[in-house]
Amino acid sequence: MTIQGLNYEFDIIDRPTFSYLKVLLKTGQEIKCERGSMMFFEPTLEIRTQKAEKGFLKSVKRTLAGETFMLNFFHANSNGWVALSPPFAGDLMHLPIESGRSWVVFSGGYVASSPHLQQETRFLGIKKGLFSGERSFMLTISAPEAPGDLFIGGNGAFIEWNLQPGQILNCDNGHLVAMESSVQFDIKRVGNWKSTLLSGEGVIAQLVGPGRVIMQSRNPKEFAMWLYKMMPHPSN
To answer: Can you spell out the DSSP letters for the chain?
Structure first.
């Protein structure tokens, strides 16, 4: 079923396990997406590739957030479809971003967006970054001038919380996909030092509302480690 977003008509197909995104680009429209996410596109569209952010160092910093150095832009010379998918098995979600609003997207969550939406890579700082691992850097995606469409991917199924002002949610930071920028983010110990060292949880992300939080039901890092343990290994 085709959905009308703020900028595009689109459809998310084969939900929720092996979802992919089909976007109808009308004459003159563009969409930007992660390099390697394209499944197919019609010949009425053309592709160009450029640095993800203005400035070499900004694009390098983006890779530290788990995203690609380059982005692909699909431009419609006349109406045509493009299909996109993340590299992992899971679901896709559309997040409309109104003017003046912004979302924070965590490592691997970004799939595509309207080209005019601005992206900025944020560093949590030495103290938070030291303990948060792959969550040391994150993308802030905003609509400073005009509303736009953001598409995110999750490993597994999505879980959504709508935190009220002051409401606290503790979660494994590997399960975070995105949150509204109004949500406060901090890194905390899971309990006492014994629990922190021996529970297998280490540290947690503490989120404080208000705002929406999008989580994924599978932690990509833990899933990769589980697959590795199941694989045959040559004996030494």
So the answer is: --EE-SS-EEEEESTTTB-EEEEEEPTT-EEEEETT-EEEE-TTEEEEEEESSSSHHHHHHHHHTTS-SEEEEEEESSSEEEEE--SSSEEEEEEEE-TT-EEEE-TT-EEEE-TTSEEEEEE--HHHHHHHGGGSEEEEEE-SSS-EEEEEEEEB-EEEEEEPTT-EEEE-GGGEEEEETTSEEEEEESSSHHHHHHSS--EEEEEESSEEEEEESS-HHHHHHHHHHHS-----
